[in-house]
Every structure is written in C-alpha cells, then in structure tokens.
Amino acid sequence: MPALIIPRLLSHLLACSIASSSLAQQPPVDLPGLTYDTPFFPGATYNPNVPTPDQVLGFPAGQKPATHAQIEAVIKAIATNNPRCKLVEYGKTHEGRTLFYIVIAAPRHIERLDAIKADLAKLADPRSVSAAEADRIADTIPAVAWMAYVIHGDEMSSSDAALAVAHHLAAGTDASVTSMLDDLIVIIDPLMNPDGRDRWLNIMQTNRTAQPQVDDQALMHAGIWPSGRMNHYLFDMNRDWIFATQPETRGRIKAIAEWNPHYLVEGHEMGSQDTFLFQPARDPHNPNADPHARTWADEFAKDQGAAFDQFGWRYYTGEWNEEWYPGYTGSWAGLRGIANNLYEQANIQVDAVRRPEGTLETYRESVHKQLVATMANLTTLQKNRKAIVKGMLEERRKNVSAEGPYAARCFAVVPGANASRWRQFVDLLQVQGFEAYTLDREFAADGKDRLGREFKGRRFPKGTLYIPTRQPLARLVAAMMEFDPRMSETFLADERRELLRFGNSKLYDITGWNIPMLFDMDASELAMGLPDGAERLAVPP
User: Fold this and answer.
1) I need a surface site. Which of 229, 253, 474, 495 has the fewest CB within 10 A?
2) Residue 222: band (very low, low, confident or very high) from pLDDT cuts 50, 70, 90
3) Helices first, then strands: H and E counts in the chain
4) How far apart are CA 264 and CA 321, in angstroms?
5) How many structural domains comprise the chain?
6) Bridge-partner residues for 101, per DSSP?
7) What is the dihedral of CA 298, 313, 200, 153, to 10 degrees?
C-alpha cells in the first residue's frame, strides 16, 4: 500500500470512530407510546400509615421489574404492624433466597387464623366432622384464595402486579376492599422462583442499551441460556408438583395443604406477540379431574373477560393449554379440588415491545393486565363464596364415601431391594399428603400389575404398602398412581386429524408420568378397598 494512503485511511477511521462515539452518547429517544400512565386503582383511598410500593422501591410499581430483595422489602413493609396482614416464610431456594407469602384479611380473621385453618382442615377431610358441623362451617367460613406468581423466573409481570394488589388490599379504605376482606382470606405468594428471576434480571441488565429496545428479537428480550425460566439447578418447577424434587415445590405443597384453599391462580407469560390467555383449559383433561374445579372455570372467565373489555384489551381462552398432565400448577390444584386459573400474558421485558400493528405494549401495561385479572378473580370468588366452599366440600365427601367413585380401588406396592429408592417413594407420598397403610401379615388379592396384566389371588408379603383411593385426595392419588389413564375417543379423533392434516399434536407437554413406574416399583392395582386390619403409615413431624 502506498505510504500516502495510510495516513488518509487512518484519518478516515478516526473520524468514523469519533462520529460513532458521539452517536452512542446521544440521550434515549422518547418513542411515542412508551409511556403508560393509566392508574392501577383509580379513585382508591388508602391508609397513609401503610407504605406504598413506590415509596419502598424508589420508582412506581410496575414501571420496571423488581428484584427478589425489593419484592421482599415491599411485602415486609406492607405487613409490618398491619392488623390485616401476616407474613409467613415457607422455605428457602437453593441459593438461599426466602420463599414467603402474605396473608391479607379482615383483622378479625387474622386474629383467629389458626382456628380458621382448623375448620378448613375439617372441610378438607369430612370424616373428621359431622355433616351438620361441616355445613355450618361452610356457611360461615371465608373462602381462601391462593394467588401465586412467577414460577418461571423470566415471566415477570405478575410479581410486580402482586405488589400493587397486596398494598391495595392491605391499605385500601374503600368499602369494596373491606367487604372483600370480610368474605375472603387472600394469600399472595408474589415470587415462586426467586433464583430464576434474579438470574434473568441480571441477563437483561447486561444486555440493556441506552436506547429503548422494542424489537422482541433484541438480546435484552430474547436473553441467553440458561435464561430465567428454571430454578438454580434448571428444574422447571411448573412440572415438579407431582415429583416434589425441589425445595421450592416441597415448601409450597406443605403450605397449600396447611390452608386447603378454595381458589388458586398462577401467573405466567407467553410469546411477546401474543395477547392474554386464561382458563378454561381445552381437552384433554385428566380423567380424574375434579368436576367442581372445572365447573367454575367458565364463571371466572366470564367475569375476567368483562373486566378486560372495559380496557379494550384482547384475550382468548381454551386454546393451547390443556390439563392432561397432573404436574402443572393448575392441574395439580384442580385434582385437589381447588378451582383455579392460569394467566398467560404476552411477555414484555423492560421498556416495551412493538406489536405487528405497530403499537407498543409497555411493561407497565402487562403488569396492569395481571392486576386486573387478579382483582376480577377475587371479586368472582367473593360473589360465589358459599357455593364454591360447599362445592369443594361435596367433592371431598364423595372422595371418602363408601359409595363414591373411588371406594373400590387400592394400589399395592411391594418394597424392593433398593432401600434408598423405597424411602424416596414413601417420602413423596407423605409430602403429597397421601394416606398409606401396611399389614403385619401376607395378603392375597385379585388385580392387575402395572402393565395391565390381570392376576388372581396374588400373595402380597408383609410390609407391602397399600394406598387406597378412598381418601380426601382421591383424585390426585389416582392421577399419580394409575398405570394407564385413557383419553376420550373424541379427543383421540381430533388428535389424529390434527396430526394427519397439519403434522401437529394438540397435546401441550408431558403425556406419561406414572409414579410407581418412575421408581421401578412392583406395584399392582386391586379392585377393592383397604384390606382389613391395615394400619396407617406414620407421617414424620
């Protein structure tokens, strides 16, 4: 290269570098539509002694995602010295972050939470109380709502909505709030996956730029592996409810069993170019699905849709989400008899996302939608409190009845040589709250093995574990233990058409999960109730 060209080339490169540096230092452009200032609770009045999320965070709630530490600080500030609130820690994550929920109710309910939980336990197991006493409790007891958010750490908006809802209920002075807290006990678990959320927030912050990023293909929105969906060890905790392998799951199962709630919400997000999905789910449903829990899905959907219509928000129901697999949050809850709802909000990270029609949807708007859905569902629960409480009681009565659909069915599991595996199997049954029994003698019975092969008079040795389906959690027991659940012929015909015409399945996710097979247990299904003389397996404290 001639010597004269080199200085000229260097000067051009220097000029380009200066221009590029100058461009990078320009202030962010204020994109039209980037500001969403619609108030969350217009006209609401509050007790000034209860700190607001904005005061604790240092920025408006929902403007950007809060960290686990910030969420914990807000909830603690709301609960401190508040007669409407009780803060409960239910576990720790692998990384040591606290798992907690806040109970919000009228002060008179907070003062007697232990007595209310004892009454709820009676309704959950009708064998423990007379029919007249159970009916009296159902007539008067507040319904319990379990509102759970962000089990997938990179689906963030519902946690920020939870902060605004918690403050509204804990500090609101309007008649609508005080009336709701007379009829309901609202339990808010604001962040089910703290490790995943904080990991995702770090990824987002690393890939932020000075300019707003509204293209959902930008790295700030798309992220990098391992994202924030999973927990520390990359387990998807929305598949773990029947396996209970993670401390987060085990803590939640114990907490929910302690309360026996009547309604449960799980807040999620989906693709950025989508809108908002909620229940009811479409086929296939698990054959053991609780009819009470399913019946209420349409009522909650109707009221939630009406609330969204007031804002002109788009939404849909009954599309791709199904409840065949019992290990999703909603399907697991439904098998316990809990009416439930799933929210799937379009995923919007910090700033906003440009939609196909050219409009921007901001993060704060996505938070607002989760908030409106939450309040709509709580209102529906309040409006139908007595019917929902009594409906759950009636299903539990059927589960334990000698004439019920689960009366003549029992699973027999023979201990194997692998003592560690056996202990883990028994531990899982006890974590789920299943009743299991043993006999101090051999027992002969007819039935079928885990491959469906029938047998007559098989002798089961002393120490065999017997798990009857006739118990309060009959439907969940059957769903986890049965060997070969069958989909309806109508659904199978639809599935075949979908496969032949489009090459797609209508099934969303997992289709096989049998627990005895998972542990490679010698398990059989007996067409009978619990053997005479069986003794209940002790549950560790």
Assistant:
1) 495
2) confident
3) 20, 19
4) 16
5) 2
6) 88
7) -10
- The residue assigned the tokens 């929210």 is 343
pLDDT of residue 16: 47
The number of beta carbons lying within 10 Å of the beta carbon of residue 94 is 13
- DSSP 8-state symbol, 536: E
Residue whose tokens read 């574990």: 465
User: Given this model, what pLDDT does residue 32 score?
Assistant: 76
Same domain for 320 and 446, yes or no, is: no
What is the CB-side half-sphere exposure of residue 389 using CA atoms within 13 A?
Answer: 26
The helix or strand, by DSSP H or E, that contains position 365, with its residue range, turns out to be: helix 363-383
Residue with tokens 């603690």: 76
Specify the 3-state DSSP secondary structure of 457: strand
Q: Among 357, 379, 400, identify where a domain stops.
A: 400
Q: Considering the domain boundaries, does residue 26 fall inside one?
A: no
Regarding whether 474 and 347 lie in a shared domain, the answer is no
State the chain's maximal CA–CA distance in angstroms: 103
Q: Is 438 left (phi over 0), alpha (psi -120 to 50) or beta?
A: beta
Q: 198 with 284, same domain?
A: yes
Side-chain-side CA neighbours of 314 within 13 Å: the count stands at: 6
Copy the structure tokens of residue 43: 């006209």
d(CA 183, CA 382): 6
Amino acid in the structure at residue 277: L
2 in a structural domain: no
Q: What is the 3-state secondary structure (H, E, C) of 318-329?
A: CCCCEECCCCCH
Residue 262 · residue 381 · CB < 8 Å? yes
Q: What is the pLDDT of residues 471-484, one digit of tens each?
A: 999 999 999 999 99
Structure token digits, residue 444: 């002969």
Give the separation between CA 406 and CA 399, rounded to whole angstroms.
Answer: 6
> By residue range, what is the domain housing residue 424?
410-536
Tokens, residue 257 = 């069993």
pTM exceeds 0.85: yes
- Establish whether the linkage from the previous residue to 194 is cis, with ω within 30° of 0: no
Q: Give dist(CA 191, CA 216) in Å, integer.
A: 24
Which residues pair with residue 467 across a beta bridge?
Answer: 411
Q: Which helix (H) or strand (E) holds 400?
A: helix 385-400
Task: Looking at the structure, tell me whether residues 166 and 213 fall in a common domain.
Answer: yes
Q: Any idea what the CATH number is for the domain that residue 346 is in?
A: 3.40.630.10
**Residue 64, C-beta contacts closer than 8 angstroms, at least 6 positions apart:** 350, 363
Out of 79-88, 217-226, 481-490, give the one with best mean pLDDT.
Answer: 79-88
Distances (CA, A) of 344 to 77, 214, 277: 29, 20, 5
Rg over alpha carbons for the chain, rounded to the nearest Å, is: 26
Residue 346's beta-bridge partner residues? 270
Nearest to 367 by CA among 385, 382, 381, 346: 346
Residues sharing a CB contact under 8 Å with residue 229, sequence separation 6 or more, in sequence order: 152, 153, 154, 155, 196, 236
